[in-house]
Amino acid sequence: MALLARARPWFAKPCVPAPFRARVQMGGTRQLNLQSHLVTPKELSSALAKNVLTKISTAPRVIPLCAAWFLPNDAKGRTGQRVFEEKRIPSARFFDLDAVKDHDSPYPHMLPSAEDFAKAMRDIGIRRDDEVVVYDTQELGIFSAPRVAWTLSVFGHPSVHVLNNFRLWVQQGYPTESGRVQATEEEPSDYPTPNLDRSKVVDFPEMKEIAKDHNKEGSEGFQVLDARSKGRWAGTDPEPRPGLSSGHIPGSISVPVSELLDPDTGALLPGEELKRLFASKGVDPERPIISSCGTGVTAAVIDTALGEAGYGTPEVRRLYDGSWT
Asked: Which one from 269, 293, 302, 306 is the annotated catalytic residue?
């Protein structure tokens, strides 16, 4: 099974509201297509229409990147690779969260080394000047795409976005394709080995000290937001991984992912609604915010929601890698 894959070239269907059209550029630097971190299906459709569909072109491209992932106790036994093959955005690549990680760590989904990250980007043919739009599954809505987008961002990829979301892409009639795909048919890219921006990451030793200092006089007043379900946070529901007890970090605030999403579409709520939700939880935008969850995947949904709400500057927002595990 391929860990990272690229779908075959595709062409627009005439019924699509904003059909994709190849437009060859005769040189020069292409302006960025997407201005906001969160993009709509219509915005992605328009951006993809500007891609140069020729192997000899070195022009920057818009690349759909599927981040499909399911919890290990998924009742239907679904996997990201399987749903990617069942339905995807044409010409999308697949990023396997269970493969692109720190394999020396006993914990799932810890950030990979810079070398392993760069190799993954080379293997799927992503160039550093490509605009990458990460998307989730139709089944779950916004879920794991923010984690992959966050990973690209902390490794310094210049242009990273999240589609809001693939379920709406399908419902609005944009094209999809299916079938098994092989490793990328294009030449691997020359993606350089980047530097990790550690200022955006909280590790276990630091979180341990933050938890110990909770409510102590003179502490910095970190706010830890937990994306797991209320039951897991409260310790009344089991964790999806055998042997792992539920509960929460002292002083953490329960912000279940489900509360950040539209219940019908699975899309992230509008910024103003998110701002009111964070305010109702007592989150202070002026104090440092750390997003957490089970393994560091859905914590990135909180971070994305904070950004969409304009709640706290990027300088005060970080993610706890590894999280509850």
From this structure: 293
